[in-house]
Design a protein that fits this description.
Layout lengths: L7 H15 L2 H11 L5 H10 L20 H14 L6 H16 L8 H17 L35 E2 L17 E2 H12 L3 E4 L6 H11 L9 H24 L14 H14 L4 E6 L4 H8 L4 H8 L24 E6 L5 E6 L10 H14 L8 E8 L2 H4 L1 H7 L12 E7 L8 H4 L16 E5 L3 H18 L3 E6 L17 H8 L4 H12 L4 H22 L33 H12 L9 H16 L5 H14 L3 E6 L14 E2 L6 E2 L14 E5 L5 H13 L3 E6 L10 H8 L2 H5 L6 E5 L14 H6 L18 H4 L3 E3 L4 H10 L9 E5 L25 E2 L2 E2 L4 E2 L14 E5 L3 H11 L5 E6 L1 E3 L3 H10 L4 E9 L5 H14 L8 E6 L10 H15 L9
Parallel strand pairs: 4-6, 4-7, 7-8, 8-10, 9-10, 11-14, 11-15, 15-16, 16-18, 17-18, 22-23, 22-25, 25-26
Antiparallel strand pairs: 1-2, 3-9, 5-6, 12-13, 17-24, 19-20, 21-23
The structure holds thiamine diphosphate (TPP) and magnesium ion.
The site of magnesium ion has 6 residues, from loops.
Catalytic activity: N(6)-[(R)-lipoyl]-L-lysyl-[protein] + 2-oxoglutarate + H(+) = N(6)-[(R)-S(8)-succinyldihydrolipoyl]-L-lysyl-[protein] + CO2
Cofactor: thiamine diphosphate; Mg(2+)
Pfam family, one: OxoGdeHyase_C
Length: about 1000
């Protein structure tokens, strides 16, 4: 491969020189033989005849160690003793001597074998298992100049030409393949030939890093078959047919759209027959549904030939297509380029089964789709009750540049064995075209193989020469078998090349002139295979021509049909999403209050612990307090509000899943969703016991790996599978969410618009200025608001019966200040006919704040209860001033609008300063902006100075988002200009917060005091 292209011959020479200097063949051989003469069969002839039928003794069963320098003397003594009395030595040695003596009678060549030779041969076999892949012919371009490890040189072990026809026995206890006890004695030549075939052919196997004998043996059995595996004529015809489809597809696109970018598969056309074989084999082994994630390279080919998206649709999209029009609505979003689109179809398999395939839409950001695919797969497993995870499988196709380069690959791999994230193994295929855009592997990674990162996870890796379609098919088949057998990840690395530039209009010779000189004259995989089959006589020229013309005529028919192609209904409406509304189909707002008796019942369930359970003392107190809250209906805190939301959704039949770092206890030690018995260590999760015989996964709360990108991506994928689930990801501190920025930018905020896929994922981001420094204060609210697409200057229809504002907006951003409102905003996610992501700036100090409490009556749906307003009980987008103000309050001199925990500080300061002429309103939902409610408050206080107060610096927080919208609301009421929006908050700053606690306190006190100061506030 390319990374060793330079300088390797020098390295090789050096290695050879070292070997010849340090180990003379002749001397070594002579010494060995001389030392072990006593094993010559002649010595034991008479005894051998009288000995019982010999059986091989695996070296591993020999109980004594004979690996040191004194072995030969020791052995001689042992042998002499054994000759005198076979019972005087250990049984294993008895067997050993009998074995050699016995075999010698029928097999004269073995007579010269010594234990040391046996050991050395064993090491040589082992070396092939470990390093054989280094000698495998993997590079179709033959440009690789990898030094072959000297471990693969028989001379290193003392073998010479003269030994080639001697017979050896190398059986080892409980090892399969070459070293198996059942293998017959073979000549060194035969052993070496087969080792070369098995390990140094067109597939390089890397598996010896797996510390599991059973798994290695399984692989050895498959790799070290006595004779190489061969496909019969029928299979070869299928493979040929598939390779022709793959090749013709690209040729066809290239001729019809000469100047279009398609990121073709040329140079790795064998991927298609490989994938198809993998899917067929998987279906035979019980897989019913496959979720696929892949980037640009070959995506159209996979869509057309593997997933079976109608070719006419692909061609129509390629021609620029018509923007799809939904049967029942007009929402078409912004769309995306053709090589990012996803789809799903049912595909028949070679074995006569059907398999459901979905290719997940993805952004340009390489590998970002990986955790999404895995999460979606896991959700499919949950919903199809696939407890052993054999029916639903994820497949990820990677590039050789992106696989080692993008950290999310590793983050995703690391989810693979976690109980709440595993999917029973993902199959990874790397389209290793030995270049990334213009970057050579030597500049793109530090590891030998692009797949080395997967070795950390004990994943077998099959490197395969992409020019050898049968080898690719074989590796893919083996990967499918591995996954269904061991339920862990596996990697197929197809070493290939890229016939053209990064895309079809790129010139690759600018940067890889030598490589492309070779590529220009290199036969395609199809040409190579056709030649091979014709030479074998298994397939005739007519057969080949027949397939070629069949494929071409179908492609032409589809091309013609593409001209009249009318996109059908959205595929996202299928399956579980049937009946869900698209953004412009009005979905009525529903109440989210719950019957008081249900609240009481679930409240009891989530606060009661099993009798014998012994929680930590402090936790016990917390649960006693919680029980009291439910009993009295007063003082419900944040954690109980959240648990009530989960519990009520569960009893309504929804699946609830919360994951993130330390979410079980909660970063701030407030949730205690999982309790630990202090004596036994047993765990108890009250929300698992809300209903009788509750499915244990129906409520899932799970600490995650320390990954934001991977885990958020996973939960996003999970949430997209079924709308009847509340899926939440919580960041440890909101600040760390930026580690998952790609998921926010490319998926969560824009996925619906680009790909027409909805998700109701909830993201909890602890946010608030408590003096914990720059990295534990801000969840970067401003970024989420900046990505929000509600119009700052146009007030949409706000009539409750006609309002689609929230449906038309890309997501919701809230900063909620009461447990009851939190309860309702979570429930609202499910109690509506569409799904929208919800970003929650979640509290830290409000978790225990004495005033941040709600009464149970604010959760119920009883008319007249505190939470109940004109429409019933539901989430309050704005909480009006808590003083009993009438509809018109002319005496109020200032209206402070704010959001989040600063409200409580403002309220306290107002009380302290007796600011009765100040009203404070909380904008609980920042996006989409609650124009109607803000205007209601503006009208209520016609003479008030309007202030936006925030604790974040001016260039952060909600200010830049709020100002234009507030102005639009005011302007519509004839209420002043931008100048009239007063700002109270921190000054602009580079860091989110000060690192000095005293400075924090001073800043916080000042801003709170300023907000309620008697004098008017100057304009910003
Ligand atoms: C995260 C990310 N960084 C950079 C790019 C720009 N880019 C697009 S393709 C590409 C090269 C990818 O190389 P490789 O993974 O080997 O795939 P190939 O195109 O060779 O199939 C790059 C750098 C991107 N799409 N995503
Ligand atoms: Mg590449």
């Amino acid at each position: 491969m390319a990374w060793f292209r330079a300088g390797s011959s020098v390295a090789k020479l050096a290695i050879r020189r070292t070997i010849s200097q340090s180990s003379s063949y002749v001397t070594r051989t002579k010494v060995t033989r001389a030392q072990n003469q006593q094993f010559h069969t002649t010595v034991f002839k008479s005894k051998a005849q009288s000995a019982p039928v010999p059986r091989p003794v695996p070296l591993s069963r020999l109980t004594d160690s004979f690996l040191d320098g004194t072995s030969s003397v020791y052995l001689e003594e042992l042998q002499r003793a054994w000759e005198k009395d076979p019972n005087s030595v250990d049984e294993s040695w008895d067997n050993f001597f009998r074995n050699f003596v016995g075999q010698a009678t029928t097999s004269p060549g073995i007579s010269g074998q010594t234990i040391q030779e046996s050991m050395r041969l064993l090491l040589l076999v082992r070396a092939y298992q470990v390093y054989g892949h280094m000698k495998a012919k993997l590079d179709p371009l033959d440009l690789e100049q990898r030094p072959i490890p000297d471990d693969l040189d028989p001379a290193l072990y003392g073998f010479t030409e003269a030994d080639l026809d001697r017979e050896f026995f190398i059986g080892v206890w409980r090892i399969s393949g070459f070293l198996s006890e059942n293998r017959p004695v073979q000549t060194l030549r035969a052993i070496l030939t087969r080792l070369e075939q098995a390990y140094c052919g067109r597939i390089g196997y890397e598996y010896m890093h797996i510390a599991d004998r059973e798994k290695c043996n399984w692989l050895r059995d498959k790799i070290e078959t006595p004779t190489p595996t061969q496909y019969n004529r029928q299979r070869r015809e299928v493979i040929l047919d598939r390779l022709i489809w793959s090749t013709q597809f690209e040729n066809f696109l290239a001729t019809k759209w000469t100047a279009a970018k398609r990121f073709g598969l040329e140079g790795c056309e064998t991927l298609i027959p490989g994938m198809k074989e993998m899917f067929d084999r998987s279906a035979d082994l019980g897989v019913e549904s496959i979720v696929i994630g892949m980037s640009h390279r070959g995506r159209l080919n996979v869509l057309g030939n593997v997933v079976r998206k109608p070719l006419r649709q692909i061609f129509s999209e390629f021609s620029g297509g018509t923007k799809p029009v939904d049967e029942v609505g007009l929402y078409t979003g912004t769309g995306d380029v053709k090589y990012h689109l996803g789809t799903s179809y049912d595909r028949p398999t070679r074995g006569g089964k059907r398999i459901h395939l979905s290719l997940v839409a993805n952004p340009s950001h390489l590998e970002a789709v990986d955790p999404v695919v895995v999460g979606k797969t896991r959700a499919k497993q949950y919903y199809s009750n696939d407890v052993d995870r054999t029916k639903n499988m994820g497949i990820l196709i990677h590039g050789d540049g992106s696989f080692p380069g993008q950290g999310v690959v590793y983050e995703t791999l690391h989810l693979s064995a976690l109980p709440n994230y595993t999917t029973g193994g993902t199959i990874h295929i790397v389209v290793n075209n030995q270049v990334a855009f213009t970057t050579d592997p030597r500049s793109g990674r530090s590891s030998q193989y692009c797949t080395d990162v997967a070795k950390a996870l004990s994943t077998p890796i099959f490197h395969v020469n992409g020019d050898d379609v049968e080898a690719v098919v074989h590796a893919c088949e083996l990967a499918a078998e591995w996954r269904q057998t061991f339920h862990t990840d596996v990697v197929v690395d197809i070493v290939c090349y890229r016939r053209f530039g990064h895309n079809e209009i790129d010139e690759p010779s600018f940067t890889q002139p030598k490589m492309y000189k070779v590529i220009r004259n290199h036969l395609s995989a199809l040409e190579i295979y056709q030649k091979k089959l014709l030479e074998s006589g298994q397939v005739s020229k007519e057969d080949v021509d027949k397939i070629n013309s069949k494929v071409l005529s179908i492609l032409n028919e589809e091309f013609l049909a593409s001209k009249d192609y009318v996109p059908q209904r959205r595929d996202w409406l299928s399956a579980y999403w049937m009946g869900f509304k698209s953004p412009e189909q009005l979905s009525r707002i529903r109440n989210t209050g719950v019957k008081p008796e249900i609240l009481k019942n679930v409240g009891k369930a989530i606060t009661t612990l099993p009798e014998n359970f012994k929680p930590h003392r402090a936790v016990k107190r917390i649960f006693d307090d919680r029980a009291k809250m439910i009993e009295t209906g007063e003082g419900i805190d944040w954690a109980v509000g959240e648990a009530l939301a989960f519990a009520t959704l569960l009893v309504e039949g929804n699946h609830v899943r919360l994951s993130g770092q330390d979410v079980e206890r909660g970063t701030f030690s407030h949730r205690h969703a999982v309790l630990h018995d202090q004596e036994t260590g047993d765990q108890y999760c009250p929300l698992d016991h809300v209903m009788m015989n509750q499915n244990e996964e129906m409520f899932t709360v799970s600490n995650s790996s320390l990954s934001e990108f991977g885990v958020l991506g996973f939960e996003l994928g999970y949430s997209m599978e079924n709308p009847n689930s509340l899926v939440l990801w919580e960041a440890q501190f909101g600040d760390f969410a930026n580690g998952a920025q790609v998921i926010f930018d490319q998926f969560l905020s824009s996925g619906e618009s680009k790909w027409l896929r909805q998700t109701g994922l909830v993201v909890l981001l602890p946010h608030g200025y408590d003096g914990q420094g720059p990295e534990h204060s801000s969840a970067r609210l401003e970024r989420f608001l900046q990505m929000s697409d509600d119009h700052p200057y146009i007030i949409p229809e706000m009539d409750p019966t006609l309002r689609t504002q929230i449906q038309e907006c890309n997501w919701q951003v809230v900063n909620v200040t009461t447990p009851a409102n939190y309860f309702h905003v979570l429930r609202r996610q499910i109690h509506r006919e569409f799904r929208k992501p919800l970003i929650v700036m979640s509290p830290k100090n409000l978790l225990r704040h004495k005033d941040c409490k709600s009464n149970l009556s604010e959760f119920d749906d009883v008319q007249g209860h505190p939470g109940f307003d004109k429409q019933g009980t539901r989430f309050k987008r704005l909480i009006k001033d808590q003083n009993d103000h009438s509809d018109l309050e002319e005496g109020i001199r200032r209206l402070i609008l704010c959001s989040g925990k600063v409200y409580y500080e403002l309220d306290e300061e107002r009380k302290k300063t007796n600011g009765k002429d100040i009203a404070i309103c909380r904008v609980e939902q920042l996006c989409p902006f609650p124009y109607n409610l803000v205007q209601r408050e503006l009208k209520r206080y016609p003479n008030a100075e309007v202030v936006w107060c925030q604790e974040e610096p001016m260039n952060m927080g909600a200010y830049s988002y709020i100002a234009p919208r507030l102005h639009t609301a005011m302007k519509a009421l004839g209420r002043g200009t931008m100048e009239d929006i007063k700002y109270v908050g921190r000054a602009p700053s580079a860091a989110t917060a000060t690192g000095f606690y005293q400075v924090h306190v001073k800043e916080q006190t000042e801003l709170v005091q300023k907000a309620v100061q008697p004098d008017p506030i100057e304009s910003p």
